[in-house]
Specification:
Layout (H helix, E strand, L loop, with lengths): L10 H12 L5 H8 L3 H13 L19 E9 L4 H12 L4 E6 L6 E7 L2 H12 L5 E8 L13
Antiparallel strand pairs: 1-3, 1-4, 2-3
Length: 158
């Protein structure tokens, strides 16, 4: 993932981002109207936010249950070494596991925290055996199944 440094956002930028986070398919005409800008000024600002990396992409948020992936599983992974080559090898391998929706390099007792979406416990067992524990350098994998989502925001508090 590309590292982006924070940029100075004014009130109009923040307002645009709030609108876009709730409706990423809004037309430039409607966005301009909502943030009280001309269409050309709105488009210029939007392109500047995209070019600065503030807006990294546009996507549809899917309902995990509706697509047959009702279980969220949080997995901690400990590696045998924190050498750069070991970390890079793990990150390359884990990027190829489609059920991994998020992966974070962590401080603390485990090296990585993953979020997986799976169909059921059998699906988790298959991924655990064939994908997670088969990656070179993995010494420990610990999984916790989420019983219920309490808060899950798709929007940042800008």
């Amino acid at each position: 993932m590309k590292t982006v440094s924070a940029i100075e956002l004014d009130a109009i930028d923040r307002n645009m981002l709030r609108v876009l986070q709730t409706d990423g398919r809004i037309s430039n005409v409607d966005l301009a109207r909502r943030v009280n800008l001309s269409e050309s000024a709105c488009l210029r600002r939007l392109r500047a936010l995209e070019n600065a990396g503030v807006i990294s992409r546009y996507a549809a948020l899917l309902n995990e249950r509706a697509v047959g992936l009702p279980l969220s599983v949080f997995v901690t992974v400990t590696l045998a070494s924190q050498a750069q080559a070991t970390l890079e090898a793990f990150e390359t391998a884990i990027a190829g596991v489609p059920e991994v929706t998020e992966c974070y390099l962590m401080t603390g007792s485990a090296d990585y925290l993953l979020r997986l979406v799976v169909r059921d416990v059998d699906d988790l067992e298959r991924i655990h055996a064939r994908a997670l524990t088969s990656i070179a350098g993995v010494t420990r994998v610990s999984s916790s199944v989420a019983m219920r989502t309490v808060v899950k925001r798709g929007a940042l508090p800008v």
